[in-house]
Here is the input.
Amino acid sequence: MSSVEMIESPAMADSRRAMEVCNACRYCEGFCAVFPAMELHRDFAAGDLSYLANLCHGCKGCYYACQYAPPHEFGINVARSFALLRQESYAEHAWPAPLGRAFARNGLVTSLAMAGGIALVLLLTFLLQSPGTIFGVLPVTPGAGFYLIIPKAVMTLTALAAGLFAVLAMGMGLASYWRASGTRGWSVKDLRQACKDAASLRYLGGNGHGCNDKDGSFSTTRRHLHHLMAYGFLLCFAATSVGAFEDLILGWPAPYPLLSLPVLLGLAGGIGIIFGCAGLLWVKLQADQEPQARELLGADAGLLLLLLLIAATGLLLLALRGTSAQGVTLCVHLGLVLGFFVTMPYSKFVHGLYRFAALLRNAREQREAG
Amino acid sequence: MDQKALRYDIVVIGGGNAALTAALEARLAGASVLVLEHAPKAMRGGNSRHTRNIRAMHAAPTSVLTESYLEDEYWDDLLRVTGGQTDEALARLTIRATQEALPFMARCGVKFQPSLTGTLSLSRTNAFFLGGGKALLNAYYAAAEALGVEVLYDTQVTEVAIDGRRVRRLKVVCKGFPLEVTGKVVIAASGGFQANIEWLKQAWGPQAENFLIRGTPYAQGRVLRNLLDQGIASVGDPTQCHAVAIDGRAPKFDGGIATRLDCVPFSIVVNKHGQRFYNEGEDVWPKRYAIWGRLVAQQPDQVAYSIIDSQAEKLFMPSVFPAIKADSIAALAEKLGLEPAALEATVAAYNAACVPGDFYSSRLDGVHTQGLEPPKTNWARPILQAPFIGYPLRPGITFTYLGVKVNERAEVIMQDGGVMENLYASGEIMAGSILGKGYLAGFGMAIGTVFGRIAGKEAARNVQR
Here is the structure.
């Protein structure tokens, strides 16, 4: 036994107290997965609370319905307590650990500074090397164009390295969370259920009643905006993958014409991301701040802004192809993409992974509970 | 504030379910409506904010109710809990009108929970609001504001000025400032007096000081008192209130549902002297919890302690406050502030009296004591296995029965039998006519919704006359 006792964080203590009140009340069990999951427990270990916090989609239904919400002396605000606990779980399980601590709070500044810095470095590098190339009007012919600005090998290797790092770091983080939060013993059926719940955002008001996006009234705005953004992101990822495959495997070099698969996928995805991210930012800033964690606004807005900028510069790049602005736009776009990949494991991006792990445990527990 | 602005067709006193349904119906009929809510916005809604469901008659399954629940069965249920202290005409009117209540609620934006898990099995008779009563109120307030109903929060009505058979004006205190409000018609939906400790003391004596109030602190009964003092006829026993045993650590007001304790049938309950005083295993808890408020209120200092051992720890819903645990009965007694020797003697006598049998927590198992006074007739298993666990109990007051008399149009009746020309009532302030005794889950909301709607419609018709 250690003589120094682990002191629980305020978010953890708050969440435990909230769950003890909620478990004696249970009025909110119709809103989402959190309350039925809570009802399977009488006592809440740290791992259980971390699991419940990540199962929470932040729909805020329970806040507006709560007879014990502030100014009641119990002061229950599950949406806020769980948002803070989620952030702690991201920071706690981040790999390598010191980076997790650095990113635990200041998401907006960190993401933007890193992305902007990378863009600037790229820009300066190529400015110094050959100003003629970067500001030149380049032909939009396969194999030329982009690669005259940034050599193909540099682009490919940098992207690969950044991508692999992000996957490794997030994989390590997720594995650590997975162990700590008790995501085990699941079946293929549970996996299918979790995929369905995640893909449909079932618990963001997906059962038909909607959620409390901005105030006590119900809407499905946030759910639809999140779909736009997330599926837009997947389309862009598909565009990049198809492009890489055509270029590197099939030997059809980029850039591609407007009516090609990579460009059409990227175009649709980019538009989705722009509307989705802008809408989500707008909802977040418009919404009642009480059930939100004000201190996490930077981290939340940071990711949305970064995605928005990536999509916007990507579309801009398409529009400016073959003009003298192409070089600068390409550098900024790729700088932002690079920044995104590097900061990804320490940004709100990881919420998708943690929530999926929580949905998987929930699917298993609910199946076992019958 | 502009005095002229405070003249409305209809003024509704109160801010809970019965007030809002009245305001909505009146506004839908075209009247200008002002709602006067005593509580601040964050705590609006009276006792409705602590409710969860409405008991509704239905002939066939609906999206939120299973099977059917017809008028006669509903009436039988009411007759059983009230022991006949009800008005059959008003009761049957209420029961029948609950059929149309659910579609009205849905039109106003109220959302229901599809079906219910957990310990209550009311999915046939009661429709559950998604998120409970506060979510229901949020929907009603949003609908009312969208229709142009005006709401003043932090506004207490201090006097209803009656002249003959007409209400002339209302004296109110709005955010600390006195005001006069005039309505062509007034609807009183301001609840009972259960949060008025001084008034409770008149019926219960000084022991009422130790009662906890499960609901809103704003149910002061000021309007009710004022009306009864001016010749309005009363209904319901003025000394009676619905009292259950709740966790003794609950807040003085607004503790709501979470402070309930369901451990009594699996425990022995002792008073501050460590003595048992009633058969804890008389019947299943849903049929007995309402008598335990009174039982605890009759004990010295209005406090009692429910004692279990670790075998019973998980047989009931989790408590909102932590269980008080100790490794011996004497140590538990110390923690609860009881005399250790007295509690040890009581537990020993109980354990010795327990007749072995097959214990089943989910039904009357007949496991009883022999030669013990008072006996325990079910779930009487010896208290042996550490850790030993205790919970303090206090009386928790839910609502009072005294109210004003109304007719089937929600018009308020005077002591001389005359009918008030422009005063209507809905909700707890008149519920004593129909629920004169006992309690039926979701029936308070049924009365409030049905009579709120009647009062709103009739008041609007009155304005147009």
Summary: Residues 10-93 of chain A form one domain. Residues 152-180 of chain A form the longest helix (29 residues). The CA atoms of residues 83 and 256 of chain A lie 42 Å apart. The mean pLDDT of chain A is 87.
